Here is the input.
Amino acid sequence: ADQIRVAIAGYGNLGRGVESAVAQNPDMQLVGVFSRRDPASVTLLDSNVPVYPMADIEQYQNEVDVMILCGGSKTDLPEQGPYLAQFFNTVDSFDTHAKVNEHHAALDEPARKSGKVALLSVGWDPGMFSLNRMFGETILPEGETYTFWGKGLSQGHSDAVRRVSGVKKGVQYTLPSEEAIARVRNGEQPELSTREKHVRECFVVLEDGADEEAVRNAIVTMPDYFEPFDTTVNFIDEATFAAEHSAMPHGGFVIRSGETGTQSKQTMEYSLALGSNPEFTASVLVAYARAVHKMASSGDVGAKTVFDVPPGLLSPKSPAQLRKDLL
Ligand code: NDP
Here is the structure.
C-alpha cells in the first residue's frame, strides 16, 4: 500500500519529535518541513527532506495527506490551525484547556468548507489523559477523578527561578505528592488542595558570591509560583546541572476512584513516565495522523478531538489483525 504522506508545520521540540516518530512508522513518510524561519537556517535531525518556507505551504496541497502542526499553543496554533485547515487534513497539540471549544469552532468552519479533517488537542494532556478521564467517569459514574502531573519539567516555573537575582542556572520540576496519591489509590476520595496535590523541586547553580539562603527564600516565597506549594531548592554545580538537568521529562497519573454495586471500591489508573515530553507528544500526534488519514479517506470532515476517533484507526494493523492480536 502507498505510504501516508505527512509534513511538519513548525520545527521546534515537537517538530523534531515528529521527525523521529515518523521514521519509526513504516507506513508513513515525511515529505517536508515548513518553517517561518529562513529554511537555510533550519537543520533537521537526520531526514533528507526539504525545508520549505511556511509562506509557500498552500502550493503543497496535493503532496501532503496530513499536516502535523507543531507550533506553540499560545499564538501559533490559533492562527496556523484555521489557516491550514483550508488546505490540509491537520493534527495539532493545542493545550490551552480553557480555550478548547473556541479553537474547535475556529477549525470546524474552514475544515468543513475544504472537506478536510482537523484534529485538535492531541498529545498526552490533553490527549491520552483526556481519554482516560472520560473512561473513568463513564465506567464509574459514582466517584472522583484525579489528575496528578510529574515528575515534570515546568518551563514557566523554571523561567521564574532563573529571574531570581543570584541564580545562574535553574530548573523546576513539579512532582505529585506521594501522600496524596497513596490516599487516592486507597479509595479515600479526598478533597485535595493545590498545595496537597503537588510539590515543587528546584535545582539551582548560583552566581559567584550569591547567598544560598537569600536565593532559597526569594524562590520559596514567590507569590503564585512557589508560595502556595511545598518547595525545595537544591544547590548544585554546573557540571551536575549539565549532566542531570538537560532533558525534558514529564508524565503523571489519571486516577478514577469509585464504587459500584454493593459498595465495592474500584480504582482505575493510567500513568505515564516520560523521558522526553515532546518526543512522546509527537509519537501520539503521528499515531493520530494515521487515524486522520483514514477518517478523511472515508469522507469524514470537520474539527475532531480524541473523543471522536475510533481507537482502532490509530493502528497500522487491519481490524482483523487487531482482533487476532490484541482482543
Ligand atoms: P517550541 O517553542 O520548541 O516550538 C514552537 C515553534 O517555535 C516551532 O513550531 C517553530 O516554528 C518555532 N521555533 C522553534 N525553534 C525556534 C528557534 N530556535 N528560533 C525561532 N523559532 C523557533 O515548542 P514545542 O515544540 O516544545 O511545543 C509546541 C507546543 O506543543 C506547546 O506550545 C504546547 O502547547 C504543545 N504541547 C502539547 C502537549 C500535549 O500533551 N497536548 C505536550 C507538550 C507540548 P517555525 O519553525 O515556524 O519557526
Remarks:
- Residues 132 and 246 are 30 Å apart (CA to CA).
- The chain is about 35% helix and 25% strand.
- Residues 10-15, 35-37, 54, 70-73, 76, 93, 95, 123-127, 277-278, 281 surround NDP (CB under 6 Å).
- The two ends are 25 Å apart (CA to CA).
